[in-house]
Write a structure and sequence with these properties.
This protein folds into 2 domains: 22-300, CorA soluble domain-like (Beta Polymerase, domain 2, 2-Layer Sandwich), CATH 3.30.460; 328-370. 47% of the residues lie in helices and 15% in strands. It has helices spanning 65-74, 79-86, 159-167, 177-190, 192-212, 216-247, 262-327, 349-370; strands at 22-28, 33-38, 54-60, 93-96, 101-112, 125-126, 129-140, 144-149. It is rod-shaped and about 125 Å long. The chain starts with 21 loop residues before the first strand and ends in a 14-residue tail after the last helix. The model has no long low-confidence stretch (mean pLDDT 83).
Length: 384
């Protein structure tokens, strides 16, 4: 939700549909770690943390504005940074404040759901799941990291980072808070790859359906996937600029140098490369989706032309038959003149009329096939 026009800077708006706020605490150093759920922020004062340990608060759900405001007061978070965290959605960006750094990104999750329960108009299906985009805000301070998520759900993009902390894998337990922010950003960007892999499978399936059986549902799914790609593009496009802003910390005159060390900036370049790769893949898929829609429309038009051609052929075949039947249904009086329907008194008049109809129909079918209007196209003469 957004504050009203003209509201004071830093105004926080509580969304009544927001998820209830739950705070998860993780602190660790190179030798030990601990994680727990905080019932209230006063529990922070009762936790005995060794000096030099790193604190990570993962806030899930933004409904309790008072609790979020209390966290901001404890860590001296700027009101404008807190407004960007709470008043969602915001574009992906990086903002530097006096004692902390704000990074906003968008997480892409593929939620498994039975195919029979998916509404193609409201929830575009990707494989056996539905795309869910969520804003993630990260605040980096000296010795602490605070992340804000919209929902309190298991299986988010941060779970691999938690597993690395629990298992002391890599250098995450011995590195600083800036390395944790890098790891979280890397996990968010890597979360786009499973979605793109499912998109690849879905597009391959739709390509076969488009060429073989271009049903109306196929066109609807292609259009839905185009909206999915647009959503993914909005989520990742501005993150490229945000990563560029973080990487400019390599300049000694940049104040982010004190929060982002040069050792971590080297890893951020790898995340930037992944962001560019994801953007390129999404743009490629958008072009493919547009081409697939053109192929679908062409297939539908070709199929319609085939139907029209068959109906036209049938109508053309019956046209001379109707003409002949009309002649023999004119009911002229044969007693008045020998020229008035002499076939009516002929022994073979009726078989002759039927034979004439069959001959007309067969001759026209042969002519249509000869000209390539039905069946195989005519052979082109070879050059001598």
């Amino acid at each position: 939700m957004r504050p009203e026009p003209g509201a004071s800077p830093g105004t926080l708006i509580s969304d009544p549909k927001a998820t209830p706020t739950v705070v998860h605490l993780t602190w660790y150093n190179s030798h030990h770690f601990e994680e727990k759920q905080l019932l209230n922020l006063a529990d922070l004062d009762r936790i005995a943390r060794p000096a030099g340990s790193l604190l990570w608060l993962d806030v899930r759900g933004l409904k309790n504005i008072d609790m979020v405001q209390e966290i901001a007061n404890r860590f001296d978070i700027h009101p404008l940074a807190l407004a960007d965290v709470v008043n969602i959605p915001q574009r992906s960006k990086t903002e530097l404040y006096e004692n902390h750094l704000l990074v906003i990104a968008h997480m892409a999750l593929l939620i498994p759901i039975p195919a029979t329960t998916v509404d193609a108009n409201a929830d575009p299906r990707i494989g056996q799941g539905v795309l869910h985009m969520e804003q993630v805000s990260m605040l980096l301070g000296r010795g602490w990291v605070i992340t804000f998520q919209e929902n309190d759900e298991d299986g988010d993009a941060f779970e691999p980072v938690r597993q690395r902390i629990r298992g002391a894998r890599g250098k995450i337990r011995s590195a600083g808070a800036d390395y944790l922010v890098y790891a979280l950003l890397d996990a968010v960007v890597d979360g786009y790859y499973p979605v793109l892999e499912e998109l690849t499978k879905t597009f391959e399936e739709l390509e076969e359906l488009t060429l073989e059986k271009p049903a109306p549902q196929t066109g609807q799914r292609i259009h839905s996937l185009k909206r999915v790609l647009l959503t993914l593009r909005r989520g990742i496009w501005h993150l490229r600029d945000a990563m560029s802003a973080l990487m400019r910390g390599e300049d000694d005159d940049d104040p982010t140098q004190s929060l982002m060390t040069k050792g971590t900036l080297v890893y951020l370049r790898d995340v930037y490369d992944h962001v560019v790769q994801v953007v390129d893949m999404i743009e490629t898929y958008r072009e493919f989706a547009a081409s697939l829609m053109d192929v679908y429309l062409s297939s539908v038009n070709n199929r319609m032309n085939e139907v029209v051609k068959v109906l036209t052929i049938i109508s053309t075949i019956f046209l001379p038959l109707s003409f002949i039947a009309g002649i023999y249904g004119m009911n002229f009086d044969t007693t008045r003149s020998a020229w008035n329907m002499p076939e009516l008194k002929w022994l073979y008049g009726y078989p002759f009329a039927l034979s004439l109809m069959v001959a007309c129909a067969g001759g026209m079918l042969y002519a249509f096939r000869h000209f390539g209007w039905i069946g195989k196209p005519p052979r082109l003469p070879r050059d001598e």
